[in-house]
Predict the 3D structure of the following.
Amino acid sequence: MLKGKRIGIITALLGLAGLLAATAQAAPDYTFETDSRVVAFADVHGAYDDWTRLLREVQVIDQQNRWIGGGAHLVSTGDLVDRGPGSRQVVELLMQLQQQARAAGGDVHLTLGNHEVMVMTGDLRYVSAEEYAAFAADESPAEREALWRDYRKVNPGGDEAEVRAVFEQQYPPGYVALRKAFSPGGAIGDWLLQQQFAVKVNDSVYMHGGIAKNPAFNSLEALNEKMLSELRDFLDNMGKLRAAGVMPWHVGYHDRLTYLNARAEEFAAANPRTRADWFDPLQAVFDAQTAFVFSDDSLNWYRGSALCHPYAESWNTEVFLKNVGAQQLVIGHTPTHGEVQSRMDGKVLRLDTGMLNSVYKGRASALVSEGGEQFVHYLGEPQRAAPVPEQRDLAMELSGMSDAELEQFMQSAPVVAVEDIGTGITKPKRVTQEQDGKSNDAVFKYEDTDPGLQNKTHYSIRTADDSDRYVYDVAAYKLDRLLGLNLVPTAVIGQVEGTEGALSDWADNTINERDRLEQKLPFNSYCQQSEQYRLRFVFDILIHNDDRNLTNILWTKDGYMLRFIDHSLAFRSRDKRPKQYRKVDLRVSDLLIQRLQALTAEQLQAELGAYLHPRQIEAILKRRDLIVKEAVRTADPS
């Protein structure tokens, strides 16, 4: 685009009506096969300059912002708008590129993000001043005066000048034009309603947020149809209420129910035993509160695919990918602040690298699939890059040190404080250590009812399987890391006040399940409790832990992510499930099955032999085989 000229002018010159007519003739599909390049990007958020530079660098547009990609497929995972200054330019250019690409034998796909839906439905919390200003020239004085009159009707008090000042701040010039442009009948709104929420190009599925458990069982067709139908129905009913004069433009998404309820009460009081013509759309708008398209589990809002534990979340992802015949899920929505991130052994790619640098402190990036290869192009960088595998590091999260560093610290740093925790039969202590300017707390456990069990030639099931041993906390940590779970805090054998025991890193900023229930705290997390418990079931069966209880199930306070502590009563030699897990369903993903099957006797002996008897190690493998045998797999979920 030429500097200083608005893309809206260019669109008008090209004939927006003709563009919309051309794109409306063939309804967009949601499954595509191509031998050409596939270029995907995420979450532009109005970063027009960096976005267009990026598209030039990957050679899908020229210096005049015209399509030169030939048969390439350009995919946006949504959130073109909000926060950034160039949202209108981004949307209108993508509209043009879609028409030009199709004419050249390629295509442009937009999967609707939560921010497109928000603006369409009147949730304008994140619209910037520049975004409103981009529509100011399209707004007539009559429209603005009508907006003011409607606002004043329901805000009659106060000094006229003061109320007007508040109004101008809340509804700046361009407000009405923006809302109309993104509504049905508006150029942008009509185009957005022709797009999809998820598309499959070759072996990859692209969507904005991610895939939760329940939608994972549905087809792409069913998911797109459901969400688009719900969105269209909501907008249609809001339009009917607007036409009836009971839903003025100044009422936003979050105020709509309170406002409509007040209008309904006024009508009922003035018209006893009379039913207004607009009661049906009003009821439909109220019912839409439970619509899937607006829910946290929808394709454009779900964050579990980006944030939840990969071994738990991979179950949903694998079910979905197998269901739709794909190998990979590409998502945006949750920023990585700079790098395209690979999760679940590449089954999920997080493509939102924070393109709007002023807000997200990231950079523009594109995922390019070409000739059987896949690479990342970062704006301004000539070399190809690979997606960065996700790193989960519980030790670093808790202490700021790696496992190896923390083990060394706990084994060598002087103890400066010891206090009784006050809970637990074996009276564990909280220990503070300091060294070289670093300070860290740990739990110290020293009970051992069967010292040296791991080295005994004779294993007595009767006594050994009832033992309470601090070394088992270290064994649980070691096994956790072998599996890549990162749910058990770092633990070592150490000495405190002349007594040997196990030091386990203190899990700060957590709450146990008993206290959460007693305090009646809601489980506010992107990651369902029941789905996180999938990992609890597997781990506790693997180590035969029958002592899992409400006090040693920990949740982080800032997101309710699962943590495990207290394993001194685990590692029995039995080859069956512990009593409390005899009837639970084991939903285990292929990803976790592979990690379990990778365990070998030699590996376990090398890592756990200092803490466990060979009979206990053998039992781990037997229970591993039991889990694999009894698991509900994603290939045939029930």
Notes: Residues 338 and 610 are 42 Å apart (CA to CA). Residues 1-27 have pLDDT under 50 and may be disordered. The chain has 25 helices and 20 strands. The two ends are 53 Å apart (CA to CA).
